Each structure stands twice: as structure tokens, then as C-alpha cells.
Request: fold
Amino acid sequence: MGLKVKEVFNGSRITIYYVSIDDFVGDLEDLGRFLEEVSSKGRIISIIPNIGLTKTSLPLGTSFQGVKGFAVIVEKK
Reply:
């Protein structure tokens, strides 16, 4: 998997992951694989996008923003 995944919180009922991406369209397949894997551990409650300046913001200007990553919140089984 080409994604950078970090477990940022692991409580008794909830786990939160941060998934960092470089190329939104190119990383969708890996994101799908990650979601398949994590859904076996519990129910995905929410996926929250982190939107802001990306690598393409430099040549296109700071008004161009994109998805930098996602917070994935999972309720444990």
C-alpha cells in the first residue's frame, strides 16, 4: 500500500486513523484497500477529508487546494 497511515487514537470503543495521500485519483485504489482492511476491525463511522495546500498548489497558486488526507473513525466490534 502506498498510503501513509497513522493510528492517532486507540480508545476502548473508537480508533482514529490519519491517511495521508499525495495523488487523490492515483491513491483511491489504495484507500479502498485500507478501508476494506479496517472495516474488518469494526464499523467505519466517518471519513473526514483534510483539505488544504498540496504539492500542486505551488505551481497553480495558493488559491488551489486539494485533499491532503483523511481521518477515518472506526467503532470497534
In short: The CA atoms of residues 2 and 26 lie 10 Å apart. The first strand starts at residue 4 and ends at 10. The beta strands are 4-10, 14-20, 42-52, 66-76. Residues 4-76 form one domain.
